[in-house]
Amino acid sequence: MYWLEIITLTKLIRFLSFKVLDALNRGCFCIKVLKKMEIHQKLKFWYQSAGRDLPWRHTSDPYFIWLSEVILQQTRVDQGLPYYYAFTQQYPTVHDLANAHEDEVFRLWQGLGYYSRAKSLLKTAKEVQHRYNGNFPASYQELLALPGIGPYTAAAIASFAFNLPHPVVDGNVKRVVSRCLQIQEPIESKVALNEIQIWLDACMQPSEPAIFNQAIMELGALICLPKSPSCSVCPIQAHCLATQSGRPTDFPIKKSKPAKRILHLSFAWAWKNGKFAIQKRGNEGIWANLWELPSIETPEPSDIQIFEPIFPGLSLSAYRTFELPVHLLSHREIRARVFLFKTESDALHQVEWISPEMRDSYGFPRILTRFFEQNEEAFRAQLNLDFSKPDTEF
Ligand code: SF4
Q: Are 253 and 243 in contact (CB under 8 A)?
């Protein structure tokens, strides 16, 4: 009888302790939910008072939002604004863009880099035009299925245009969250991205996805800067583990990058009868489908003789060499030089001869447009081959 009472009492104590723990857990859970709601509210109020006034924030038209996001993936806001205005003026609807000529789109895109993205822009517009009759679909999955639209852009359009609860995860957002949580894994790892997504899903109040997304992106752009975060004025400082431990700039953790491959590129600026030779690049690789000066890639720097098979008789010409500033791409470093010379013979290669005035009608890679802009004088001088300091005179 005595043992029976002890067993019953033990069971009772165990039952009660489970209940107490359960209540405590529920309490913690509620506190966590409240904290996440607080983050949403703090970001929202901060954004309403400190967010920048940008044209794409005054529209819910998915076409304009999509254009702005594609441009902002290529450049900073101040540099992206003129492109946004140019595209929306030239192509006010997705229908206009879908019917645009590729060369014309490339010209507007000039300076934004990666022409494959301009090509993809056109492809997306055509798909929206043909498959959805010019109306962007109002679902995240359908947006994601469009060519050239990844999870980030799909979430941006879904939330800003259709008020759907999909957090955007761009570089700025990753930085903010990785600092708030002190994520110890490399930022592009699956584990880190998963943690970020869970935190964002929990913080975003489904009734106000657009403002939450705008606010956290803006925080990353204005306050939580890569090298010098302004933690003292950050609205979510109280929720940030990295600032509490005094190590905000230790996050996000990045995996060391492999060294960039060096590519040597020689351009021939060949002149004949006041015109110079250009050629169109192929469909693949860097600067796909753009126009350029005839070029040859080599593993080591080359001299002008490399163009002999294309422009016979080069060794009889005077020429000048221009070394271009090193051009950095994500995986490659381009070291380019331009050889300016006059030729009498036809090129043994498919080229077009254009006058300097026609230059702006063609889309060139930024490396060449910058070179042309900086060498207008050489343009004029070459007409008489009046080189002040020729490299070689035969
Ligand atoms: S407190 Fe500092 S590190 Fe943390 S989110 Fe704000 S700005 Fe970034």
A: no
Number of domains in the chain: 2
What whole-number percentage of the chain has pLDDT above 70? Answer: 86
Q: Which of 43, 236, 244 to mutate to test the pocket of ligand 1 (most atoms within 8 A of CB)?
A: 236
Catalytic residues: 69
What pLDDT score was predicted for residue 34?
Answer: 65
90 located within any domain: yes
Question: For ligand 1, what atom is nearest to the CA of residue 231?
Answer: 2
Q: What is the pLDDT of residues 359-392, one digit of tens each?
A: 888 989 989 998 988 887 767 666 555 444 445 4
Q: Measured between alpha carbons, how far is 48 from 149 in angstroms, rounded to an integer?
A: 28
In the chain, the DSSP E strands lie at 261-272, 275-280, 291-292, 295-298, 319-323, 327-328, 332-342, 352-354
Whether 184 maps to a domain, the answer reads: no
218 CA → ligand 1 middle, Å: 12
**Ligand 1 pocket residues where CB is under 6 Å:** 176, 179-180, 223-224, 229, 231, 234, 236-237, 240, 242-243, 248
Looking at 128, 163, 198, the residue that finishes a domain is 163
Q: Find the CATH number of the domain harbouring 86.
A: 1.10.340.30
Extract the tokens encoding 297: 């890639």
Atom of ligand 1 nearest to the CA of 251: 3
Tell me: pLDDT of 252 over 50. Answer: yes
Look at residue 127 and tell me if it is in a domain. yes
Question: Which residue minimizes the CA distance to atom 2 of ligand 1?
Answer: 231
Q: List the domain range (segments joined by +) for residue 126.
A: 51-163
